[in-house]
């Protein structure tokens, strides 16, 4: 049994903490994250409010926990939505080849011209800013990424003998894609999904910071930071905690993804 | 070579056209009435009809698309509703800010990333290497806007060395440069995290090759070997990432301008969203996407300059 890579272990620990806290917030938070109490605004850390309260007297820990849950939900939906469309397109391109493959890949190239922010800006301008639009924008940028990874890995599998055997046995391209190609490229897709999860967390935070994501009163690390920025002189500590949460979550999923790649594709370890 | 140039240029023009179709489609075809979006729910029917007429909303979609592209090619992006001036004037006014920030950010990124990456490679598996790798892992996870807030809290609020944001124009060059320092650093630190990693792994790859050993054996100093022999040969992957990062740089500029209240295009685009100024948003999104596509095109051409071997293969 090979020793697990350090990045995988550290990533797994950080991800467990963040996901654990997000899950815990479903059943318990120390206070209600939205309850305001102007008389206790800017309270310092204490036994009742572990990290103190914000400008409206809301408990900071409770808000951070609720924000963790929102952030995980956004990332999960965006990666699942964009990922499944991307994987389907990649499998289709690889299975059919020819002009379909060319077409899908040109579309993917086109997708790369739009960073999530630009897409979110367009949606916000037309429909008004909302978390749904942010999720759609992040999903959208995931489509070309997953389409490329899937096609590249699938093309390798299509050259294998057992695929040739399945074709000789008369199985159709879609059946082969489902039964032979997909299971064999699942590792590459999971690695990519973990890394894109980190990217999605970062994107949600940035969009919410800019006002294009979570709208009040929903808790979001990004929005907490944009509120804290206006209070920098009064309560600088409020601008610290949400940032640390973002870094922990992004670092965790990033390291976990790198670690998973090292485990599933040992050739790369040597190359580095 | 001529065929290569022709194919790449054609691909570039087609991509730009496709991008313009996407931008136009998202901004115009999706359900919703732009006139209603701009004027709000309580606008009178007359005002709505007048605005629809002015925006050309009564024309067929295809006609509107072609006239938008045709006018844009001549530098006419229509009229901004909120500022009541041509969008092109707004862009011309704000563009220098964004370009200065992007170029300064890119330069600092390159200097930082190349020196850190080469240092890490030279110190492979020793202290410096671990340090750079740790910093870059952290840099990838830190959002640029949070780093900006931290920088402002330290250098503007606490130490009072630099302004916390805003830009008073170039009439006072010293003040202007001072207000660009924090935004540039915030942009560059985050950007260089990825690039330093790529530089390191690409340099490590090159350092294994025979000609590097030969250069060392013939008595060249470590510094000279690294910067004259290793770096130029490690450039292809680095340029690729620089090109891919251009999208991140554009996004980063938009974010940073909003964090520091810099009057550039990124700030303009957010003001326009708040003002429901659709023609301005549409023009700016198109402009930013065109910048990303152009950067990728230039990178494609640069490959051939950096690595003439690629010419034969393309």
Could you give a short description of this structure?
The complex is a heterodimer of chains A (272) and B (314). Chain A is an all-alpha fold. Chain A is built from 10 helices and no strands.
- How many structural domains can be distinguished in the coordinates of chain A? 1
Q: Let me know the CATH homologous superfamily of chain A.
A: MetI-like
Roughly how many Å is the radius of gyration of chain B? 24 Å
The CATH class name of chain A reads: Mainly Alpha
The CATH architecture of the largest domain in chain B comes to: Orthogonal Bundle
Anisotropy-based shape of chain B: globular
CATH topology of chain A: MetI-like fold
The major pleated sheet of chain B works out as: none
Taking pLDDT < 50 over at least 5 consecutive residues as the criterion, the unreliable ranges of chain B are none
Low-confidence parts of chain A lasting 5 or more residues at pLDDT below 50? Answer: none
Share in helix of chain B: over 70%
Q: Kindly estimate the percentage of residues of chain A that lie in beta strands according to DSSP.
A: under 5%
Number of helices of chain A: 10
Subcellular location (chain A): Cell membrane
Keywords (chain A): Cell membrane, Membrane, Transmembrane, Transmembrane helix, Transport
Pfam families (chain A): BPD_transp_1
Membrane topology (chain A): Multi-pass membrane protein
Topology of this protein?
The complex is a heterodimer of chains A (272) and B (314).
Chain A: H1 6-27, H2 60-96, H3 98-111, H4 116-127, H5 131-158, H6 161-168, H7 173-209, H8 221-229, H9 241-264, H10 266-271
Chain B: H1 2-28, H2 34-39, H3 45-55, H4 61-73, H5 87-122, H6 127-141, H7 144-158, H8 173-207, H9 210-217, H10 222-233, H11 235-259, H12 265-274, H13 278-306, H14 309-313
Helix pairs in contact in B: 1-13, 5-6, 5-8, 5-11, 6-8, 7-8, 7-11, 8-10, 8-11, 9-10, 11-12, 11-13, 12-13
Keywords (chain A): Cell membrane, Membrane, Transmembrane, Transmembrane helix, Transport
Protein name (chain A): Peptide/nickel transport system permease protein
Organism (chain A): Sulfitobacter delicatus
